[in-house]
Amino acid sequence: MLDIVENSSNGFNVIRGGMSYKHNDLRDMSLYKAYAKFERIPVFANEPIFDTMENLTDYSAVFNTAVGRVLNMRPISKTYNLVSHQSAFDEQAKQIEDSNFDDRRVEVVDRLFEDGKKAHRTVYFTDLKHDINSRSIDDAVVPRIDIYNSIDMSWAFQIFSGAYRDLCRNSLVFGGQKAYHQKRKHTRGLDVPAMIGKSVLSLEMFDAQRDLMNNWARTLLDAESFAHILRNTLCKKPVKKSADYIRPESRPVNEKLLEYLLEQFFEESKELGETVWAGYNALTHWSTHTIEARGKENQKQHDIRRKRQDEVRDVITSPDWQTLCEVA
């Protein structure tokens, strides 16, 4: 835990290793605007033979425009996905405002470390307390979403959601339960909106259907059974000829999508075990992770996401999925 050691007049608190700021506005980015606004700048190396400076085009330094200095860190490559703290938290604010949590009271804690290179935001939904010990009405935790981000390659982009008292960056939570946790390196494939979307969806389900979520979290689901469900639902290609009506079991399967979802199931299972909850998170990953659809003409990301969410709903209401949960 970080202890406050000094208070500042602008509302920011100096803590060990950095600064923090508590407030109640998801759109308030004051701490990041004041201390952490970044841009890439060229890196030059001295060429001693010709006494010239060469631009290292594959690498960039990072300049903090908020405080007017170059950060003391290794140059970042052109493939490094420089995700600013403010852009990530703006996206989170947007998705929370668009969710079932839009009318909930929140408490936000922003933290910055190491000259702004690292950030941690916690959003508490203060009117959604959960009891974690029925023997004591005071033993309750507040549902929350935590995001960790860095711009110097030291932290992966990491997001947690659930009802827990505290957490460590090694993924452990204390006094409660995670609904969702993922971390990704800052590569070109990092899809911040998708990860944030999954955290919000998981927390919505945790809050609205906690018993169902807990049931899914303890119901075993192996990859073969998950693949069977997918072949009969989401991955089954549309009917194109009359024979498919007569023999629906012969309808072709979208093997590429099946492989994608199974790979994601294995990824989710590392954190959640081979469970129905891991299968559900693999499905919601696909429904929110629309980065691979970008660039297609006449397609809007929010339309793709809405269509995929409807298709996921069809999977979890299918007879195969329902039978799996009933026999658990």
Can you tell me about this structure?
This protein is α+β, with helices and mostly antiparallel strands. The chain has 2 domains: 4-191, no CATH class; 211-326, no CATH class. 35% of the residues lie in helices and 27% in strands. The chain has helices at residues 30-35, 85-97, 192-208, 210-218, 223-232, 242-246, 255-272, 276-288, 301-316, 319-326; strands spanning 4-7, 13-15, 18-23, 38-47, 52-64, 69-70, 76-77, 106-113, 118-125, 130-131, 140-141, 143-150, 157-163, 166-167, 173-174, 177-184. Strands 1-2-3-8-9-12-13-16 form an 8-stranded antiparallel sheet. It is globular and about 70 Å long. Residues 1-7 and 294-298 have low confidence and may be disordered.
Radius of gyration: 23 Å
By DSSP (H or I, 4+ residues per run), the number of helices equals: 10
Major sheet attributes: 8 strands, antiparallel
Number of strands: 16
Number of self-contained structural domains: 2
**Portion of residues within helices:** 25-40%
User: Which class of secondary structure composition applies to the elements?
Assistant: alpha+beta
Low-confidence stretches: 1-7, 294-298
